[in-house]
Design brief:
alpha+beta; Cytochrome Bc1 Complex, Chain A, domain 1; 28 helices; about 20% strand; globular; Metalloenz_LuxS/M16; zinc
Length: about 900
Amino acid sequence: MQTSPNDLKQYRYVTLPNALKVLLVHDADAPRSAAALSVQVGHFNDPQDRQGMAHFLEHMLFLGTEKYPKVGEFQTFINQSGGSNNAWTGTENTTFFFEVSPHAFGEGLDRFGQFFTAPLFNEEAVDKERNAVDSEYKLKLKDDVRRLYQVHKETINQAHPFAKFSVGDLTTLADRDDSLVRDELIAFYQQHYSANLMGLVLLGPQSLEELEAYATTFFRDIPNSDKAKAPVAVPLVTENENGRFITIDPLKEVRKLTLSFTLPPMDAYYRQKPLSYIAHLLGNEGQGSLMSHLKQLGWVNSLAAGGGVSGSNFREFTVSLSLTPTGVDHVDAIVTHVFQYIQLIRDQGLDQWRFDEKRSVLDMAFRYQEKSRPLDTVSYLVMNLLHYAPEDIIYGDYMMTDYDEPLIRDLLDRLRPDNMRLVLVAHGQNYDRTAQWYDTPYGVTPFTDAQLAQWQQPGTEAALLLPERNPYLCEKPDPLPLADSTDLPPKLIQDLPGFRLWHKQEHEFRVPKGIVYVAIDSPHAVSSPRNIVKTRLCVEMLLEATNESAYPAEIAGMSYNLYAHQGGVTLQLSGFSEKHPLLLKLLLERFANREFNPERFENIKSQMLRSWRNAAQDKPISQLFNELTGLLQPNNPPYPVLIEALETIEVDELPAFVEAMFAELHIDTFVYGNWLEEDTIALAETLKDAFRVTNQLYGEAQRPLVHLDRSGTLSHEIHCDHADSALLMYYQSRAITPRKIAIYTLANHLMSTTFFHELRTRQQLGYMVGTANLPLNRHPGLILYIQSPVAAPTQLLEAMDEFTNAFALVLLELNEAQWQASKQGLIAQIAEPDTNLRARAQRLWVSIGNKDETFSQRQRVIEALEKVSRADMVRFVVDVIKPRTSNRIVMHCQGQAHEQAPPLDIGTPIDSIDAFQRNAR
């Protein structure tokens, strides 16, 4: 089994006597143990009259087994063991996974293994979970991704299983006179859940021998009916579905054009990756690229190549373009240019050196592969286990073994107009059909003879060029030698008026990568909503101006980002560090020679307006979160405020704004990873020159937060265009001490499972039910939320208040062992070592931003947690959380399904946001 030289884990592949394929992974440093099991069964296997059955079964397996019959007990165990769990149902796979503290892994696997050995399918749980599936379906009724996916399903060959409705609802899963759904569920499980169709990955600090013993003990009894996976015998598309122009009406303001080509399955070619080669050229964003040309014409904003759905008997290859309003009127011409570029690749783009460049990037990524979280690792390995040869399970995603030009040519020859479906998602087109389940208006027409003739002989375009050799590829791939004292925390090596420089050479992960953060605070940038919007406009314009020339750096394994925040803007570089100075030089040159092109300005302005207006179509709970943070953080306004400011800004305001913004600055820089101190200082000089850090005022921007103090219950309603109602409850700590952080974090940890089980599983109030830890500007915060298709805000508040009133009793009923286990589970999560360089950089950077200059906050919170007693927690719930005594904000929206219900009347309404925010400190 080929592994990365940077990967110190040990692997073992075994097959149990019941034909279950198992990969064991010993990771001595794993903070948690994790498991994933995938079965080669998905919605393609749903009976025609029971669509959604595979998804329903996935839900049901969590709800009680013969050995552990209590509904909800698995989640409680996982939570108390400092872990998490989930599952998903795909087209031809259903995958289950969980992670816990290593000491609890054996018991976790015992419970988990029973899902596939002796599930109960408890009758009461069947009845309730059917409602949860229905809520999940209804939650996405106004989700454009689901609405468009349904049209996709209706416009391919209807005999192919991809056409089935994958989610399920109360009608497809209803009991019928001649058949109970529970009986069919059990029959479906017995028919499809066979050990020989499963793969299992176990990962932890346990030895390979221990892990193998776990696999044998807890999974050997999964029945093996020795069934072969039934092949899909019909094609995804036939001549009746190909050569079609499909128009779809979205809910949001979206303009997207997708060229979709249906190819044979590609699983057998994972070692050669021929489609990656084609997508690499077709999706290029550098100078002379297809995207660059279409952008200059003013027709597209972005382009991506190589996506599409895939299955055991097909692979879609897509070219997706986000269009400008003008682009919608030039669809045929855009498609012509795409075919011109495909022809250019055929004629001039097939070269061994291009393949070698792509392979060297993948080889570097593999050689210096960084760890991911145990849960993420087992989740992707279990899919590789079922799709790659055993020796390629680790390396398969990165392999590009040999340049197969005939294979690439064969695939390019399939990218033809007669083998294409063209999909335009935009308002104002012709729609004569309505998709089932999601009521999406759409239309289908065959390509005209003129279109086919034009696209089959597209001609050439001189402006289109293939990419040159990449100057950003690493030449010195090994990490730099370690300097002395690299095991110490980050060091402040420059502390000047308006400029602070932190540095740390990473000593543990030993990869030639680095991260550079440059936080540019400017009080002018955030002094009003209008200035906040101007800052965001300038950020987008600079990113836009840089994209083409910096694209090769991204291909070579570097990334950069510029983002606005409550103090100004931050520039971030990450990835292979060798060429970071070259990339930074390019970005600073673009900034120095900034242009405010009126045409690009109008385009970016319209994109931002569209994005923010589309947020008004987000699910209600997302809108409540956005409104809450905008309400409490004056420097982070909600979407309606941003839209109002943006609508009247003109391009000629921006040059003077940028000058004023840079007249008062404070810059914090953190250079971390594969960096020596002298190179960090040289980089800092470049920055100081670029931002003239000698002749301006120095000022750190304040990040105000509205404090609730003794406000009692405050309420705020927003109006959502959605059937569901939603309610969100927020509690805030005025103090920012480690003890307060510990108490709020522990409250969320203790509440989450009980809240979910009580309000979702038992009361069936909705699919989106939960609690969350929400610190804002360093102040701890706790949130409880529900989005519901069945209950109005008054009922939701009543249910939440009942829960918070009773929660002190729940705490008192925990025995001492359960109390300590819950606390230790949370401490294990907080104390978890950083998984990789990026995660550590992020944690250290947050500490710098929070003025935690000893980098000890995490340890102080853990020490405070150790001291929190059950009496402290009960007192917190009674004094802070209970409705009668609490200072809280109740955000809510009343869905269309509950228009007739009485409106929520609670506490003091927040009528004026301005007046409310004047209390900000």
